[in-house]
Amino acid sequence: MDQQQSSIALDLEQSKEFDYSKRSQWLRAAVLGANDGLVSTASLMMGVGAVKQDIKAMILTGFAGLVAGACSMAIGEFVSVYSQLDIEVAQAKRERQKERGNDGDDDKEDLPNPIQAAAASALAFSIGAMVPLLAASFIREYKVRIMVVFAAVTLALVAFGWLGATLGKAPVVKSCSRVLIGGWLAMGITYGLTKLIGTSGL
Predict the structure, then answer these.
(1) What residues does each domain of the chain span?
(2) Sign of the CA dihedral 82, 28, 31, 178?
(3) Which of 1, 29, 141, 154 has the smallest count of CB within 10 Å of its CB?
(4) Where does the chain cross the membrane (predicted)?
(5) Is residue 139 classed exposed, middle or buried when 0-12, 13-18 and 19+ CB atoms within 10 A define those classes?
């Protein structure tokens, strides 16, 4: 009985480890999409906000960035993962030809899914992009709007970093710090360069 329980526990442990490895494909696409949506949309809005204080211009810029970015992420992820799928299928076919006696099919769950990766990437990008859009939508005062967007994006960057690290069993502090510093740099550089160009009269 004890041996049977030990065997069941071992199988459960191996199942958990396998689940984490299977998460890698959609988790990578989702975390990448969310971070890109958050940072790129916030940076666009900050850049426009550096030279135009009009809330309408800022919101329209953010919305255009959301739509364009989500489409771009989905297409790019689909093409990338489909290429990976072709390579893995071709490799599996070559291995089957070497082992003439093995007529079994590949485990389709182990193969990358281009549609799943594209959908996850586009959805995550849109979710991330909604953070600065919602933060800016209801604040007319320019300086307050900029500060609220910055604060909301900072919180979201930490949350996405923590979520990605937790689901992927990675170091939380390191992941959050990397995501946060990268986001701050992107917003700061975009704001500063756009402000410089805008004030120079170009």
Answers:
(1) 25-199
(2) negative
(3) 1
(4) 57-75, 115-139, 146-167, 179-198
(5) middle
